[in-house]
Structure formats: structure tokens, C-alpha cells
Specification:
The protein has 74 residues and is mainly α. It contains three helices and no strands.
């Protein structure tokens, strides 16, 4: 998905750079991304429990689908 210009990267930096497109300041966009990361980390176990994910599936999703290290690359 195009986020801003020709950027298709699923990285937090791209989202922050596109802040103005969504009428946000870079500071607001950064705060939102930090809150989302905290929320995912805080509630990960509970959500996995509710979804009845096996330990194997939890490990496969974490770091691949959610909180993939690529999101932090610049």
C-alpha cells in the first residue's frame, strides 16, 4: 500500500514521514506509533490466549506478522 509518495515500506519511519498527509505533526505521529507498540506488547499474551493460539503460533506471529524487526529499519 502506498503510504506517502512512492513509499510502500511497512516501517514506522515511513508512517511518521507521512504524518502531514493525515494532518498530524511528526511528534503526534511518533506518539501514536509508540502507543500502538506499547499496546501490542502489553496485550499480546491476552490476545493470544483469547484466540487460543498455540505456543508455536504465538512465536510465529510475534516478530513476523507483529513487531517485525523490519518496522524499525530506517
Amino acid at each position: 500500500m502506498l503510504i506517502s509518495g512512492n513509499q510502500r515500506k511497512s516501517q514506522l519511519a515511513c508512517c511518521v514521514e507521512a504524518a502531514a498527509v493525515f494532518l498530524l505533526s511528526r511528534m503526534e505521529a511518533t506518539k501514536i506509533t509508540e502507543q500502538l507498540q506499547e499496546g501490542i506488547e502489553q496485550h499480546w499474551q491476552l490476545v493470544c490466549d483469547e484466540a487460543q493460539l498455540s505456543p508455536v503460533d504465538r512465536r510465529l506471529f510475534w516478530g513476523r506478522q507483529f513487531m517485525n524487526p523490519y518496522i524499525y529499519e530506517v
